[in-house]
Amino acid sequence: MRLSKRGEYGLRAMIMLAGTPEQDASLPVVQIKEISQREQISAKFLEQILLTLKNAGLLHSKMGIGGGYYLAKPPGEITLGQIFRTLDGPVAPIKCVSQMAYEPCGCPDEQTCGLRMVMGDVRNAIADILDNTSLADVVKRQEAVHKELGR
Amino acid sequence: MRLSKRGEYGLRAMIMLAGTPEQDASLPVVQIKEISQREQISAKFLEQILLTLKNAGLLHSKMGIGGGYYLAKPPGEITLGQIFRTLDGPVAPIKCVSQMAYEPCGCPDEQTCGLRMVMGDVRNAIADILDNTSLADVVKRQEAVHKELGR
DNA sequence: CAAAAAGTCTACTTTTACAATAGACTTTAT
DNA sequence: ATAAAGTCTATTGTAAAAGTAGACTTTTTG
Q1: Within 7 A of a protein CB, which nucleotides of strand C?
Q2: Closest Cα partner for A66 from A99, A34, A110, A106?
Q3: Residue A26 pLDDT > 70, yes or no?
């Protein structure tokens, strides 16, 4: 039940972008290199990840000098579920309960398969969290902890 | 976020054992071969899985003619969480929120890491389901569906 | 006691998915 | 024109998962 490194790095990068304040009233454009340094991620690997996210429409980018990445939408409109699915695929622990990519698993009778019922619950519980948490929610929560710690 | 085949097969086998009625007032001892046929699982692979479950104290076995496997405890006292962890390891999607096998992940500051907070929630949601669902619960639910379908 | 029917144990092989690296290419600002 | 950024695709390395093999032990029963 593991989040892949791609997923981990991508989510961290997106959260970082969401938490980066706008510079002098313009978009907060951040370079791969900076993200990779701040988050301790191989720049080359991160490159791929951000590209995937861009092609999925979650990031925009600007080429050339002064370029970099920025969120395609306000942080409140990007959910962790979107990011996760883009990088790691379906949330479901087993294909036969996947909304995105259903496939029968090998059980004798799907309709009465107890494992399937439970894994359906698990899928829903995970999707509930991921699809109802936006980048803005995450940043808010981080800021709350910062305040609590008096920083 | 995938359940492995080991996990899937092991859980299915345990559910099957829990749902097998006792024969003439004695324990329902079932052979590997029968489980593998009923559940469509390679007998050799299943062998390993059941052995692991046995060594974890969740199954007992009887060697020789008329032998086989049976649950080490009543179905109400075995949770899916125990089975899952035995076969697939920690429930947590990321090591830094694991109760079983904590390890720092690479984020700059764990205490204020937004991803960690959310993944902690995910871990808890999954563990909540798996640790509070016993084999007896699963069997009950299967029977309810059977009744619903009029079989 | 011998043979057959079960589980036990460990090692090996194959396959697949993940993680990471490399390098040539495109776009944009100055 | 050049340098600084992102783009794209191919390749490699590695580890975990899935599956296979085979020799061994225990138990029953004829």
Answers
A1: 4-11, 18-23, 26-30
A2: A34
A3: no
